[in-house]
Specification:
510 residues; alpha+beta; three-stranded antiparallel β-sheet; 19 helices; globular; monooxygenase activity
């Protein structure tokens, strides 16, 4: 009691005031936990860098320096993906931070690189240290449970060897008469007198018809004016699945927050379509192979599933041919000099008759323009690997970026084919310009040129694609000599399973 008879309230200590607000306690606890975790991570990082002879990698700076949870970076990546500006955005970052730098995305440390040496190291030299399936399997499993995109290790090797064996005899699998029939179907969509049409849409349909004939034994008739309802539904399902896979890939862990019902339904229906065609192919095959002496009995259902996975893997990646053709005609519509030289080189070598196998190998300028189109418009603009052990990249560390850098077990390395092809000084002067003659002094095997990837995971169908593309381009310029430009808007990225122009590619042929 005070002298005046009033109760004296006890003085609240800072500790008592702090504990009286449980949310504050929890928040402070989380912050301290993150700081301690970050400190321990840095100490371990320095220890491992000393052990492996590595130097510190540049981190993305600016306001993102304090983005410990990587939320702001994820929002920024999503913003540019929706705005169709991911490619110029990432190129600008490479120009600012160098060919290799680190960033934090939703708590994951991602290493971004466009260094030719680092990409070669990922794809070839240290191939065994990095996996693809941890990133790809959640995306591709509903459509290709055991396809080449979802596997690593022995399972992937078996699937790859089977695909390579299937694609090894080019003269057997590339029927030039079939190529000619598909080309004639393509011509039906070219309006007369150089009027405008979307060559990107036609190139996509052409590639899809050729790939489905090869994979399923029957074309999906994308170029036909009387496509069946079943084939049209399969095509719609396939396109939706491709788009959803790419969207979920960019969303990362946030993909689990988005509905999957339509995606899973389309996967199931598309897979059922492919399995039906594969089953018919197997049933109609000659029994000679089944009765071959010493042949081992196989599980028919398992074989059908395996072949369906292979067919769907090919179809999911089929857009590489259409990306190349649409990119090529986007460039040719703005370069009359190359069109004239290309036409003259084809007519001078082949004449007006459809080219033979022997003549296709002599069309050197066609190969140059195709390689230049693949360089400027690679089908797959981003790719990634996950370290399965502590490993390194040969460059990117230190103040000058020439020292090795540490890649810790579980870290993700993203490499940009788009940036490599457009920023790489090894392509000569003005690498962002269309100039086929640069390939007179360059090799398609150079380490910085990766339209089909490199190393053990290189695209097994790359030689098939080059033969078919060479034939189609030769036939187009045996038929037409002028490419009119109807493009009114800038080239705008649309990143699906492969790269497209959001605005299409409007040209005229005459």
């Amino acid at each position: 009691m005070s002298p005046r008879g009033k109760m004296v309230q006890p003085i609240e200590t800072p500790r008592q005031a702090f504990l009286a607000h449980p949310l504050t306690v929890i928040l402070v606890g989380i912050i301290l936990s993150l700081l301690v975790r970050r400190l321990l991570w840095n100490l371990k990082q320095r220890e491992l860098e000393r052990l492996h002879g590595c130097e510190r990698l540049h981190n993305e700076g600016g306001c993102l320096r304090y983005d410990f949870l990587g939320i702001a970076k994820a929002i920024k990546l999503g913003f540019h993906f929706r705005r169709r500006t991911s490619l110029p955005y990432t190129n600008a970052l490479f120009k600012r931070y160098g060919e290799t730098y680190a960033s934090n995305v939703l708590g994951y440390r991602l290493i971004f690189t466009c260094s030719a040496e680092n990409i070669k190291h990922l794809l070839s030299t240290a191939f065994a240290d990095f996996d693809s399936s941890p990133l790809r399997k959640p995306l591709f499993q509903p459509i290709t449970p055991d396809g080449i995109f979802t596997l690593d290790g022995p399972g992937w090797k078996k699937s790859r060897d089977q695909l390579r064996s299937r694609l090894s005899n080019l003269r057997k699998i590339v029927d030039l008469n079939q190529c000619e029939r598909h080309f004639q179907a393509f011509l039906q969509h070219v309006p007369p007198n150089g009027q405008a049409f979307d060559v990107q849409a036609c190139a996509f349909a052409l590639a899809l018809d050729m790939q489905t004939l090869f994979s399923l034994g029957e074309s999906v008739d994308a170029l036909s004016f009387c496509q069946s309802r079943e084939k049209k539904q399969f095509l719609e399902d396939l396109l939706f699945v491709k788009e959803k896979i790419v969207q979920d890939g960019f969303r990362g862990p946030l993909r689990y927050l988005y509905p999957k019902r339509r995606f899973l339904h389309c996967c199931k229906r598309a897979r059922r379509y492919v399995i039906a065609h594969v089953s018919r192919q197997l049933t109609g095959c000659s029994s000679m192979s089944e009765k071959a002496e010493g042949a081992q009995p196989t599980n028919a259902e398992e074989e059908v599933s395996l072949l369906a996975d292979q067919a769907l893997s090919i179809l999911l990646a089929n857009d590489s041919m259409s990306t190349t053709l649409s990119g090529l005609f986007f460039c040719l519509s703005q370069d009359e000099r190359v069109v004239k030289k290309l036409t003259a080189s084809i007519l001078g070598t082949v004449g007006l008759e459809p080219p033979t196998w022997g003549q296709l190998g002599s069309l050197h300028y066609v190969r140059w323009v195709l390689q230049e189109a693949m360089r400027l418009f690679p089908a797959v603009v981003f790719n990634a690997r996950v370290a399965n052990k502590n490993s390194t990249l040969p460059t990117g560390g230190g103040t000058n970026g020439n020292s090795p850098v540490l890649i810790r077990n579980g870290e993700i390395v993203v490499f940009s084919t788009w940036a490599r092809h457009r920023l790489g000084k090894d392509f000569g002067e003005n690498p962002d310009e269309f100039y086929p003659e640069r390939w007179k002094h360059l090799s398609g095997d150079m380490i910085g040129f990766i339209p089909f990837n490199k190393g053990p995971r290189a695209c097994p169908g790359q030689h098939y694609a080059m033969i078919v593309l060479t034939y189609i381009v030769a036939r187009i310029f045996q038929t037409f000599s002028t490419v009119s430009n109807y493009v009114t808007r800038e080239w705008t990225e649309r990143i699906s399973m492969t790269l497209e122009n959001e605005n299409g590619v409007l040209i005229g042929l005459s």
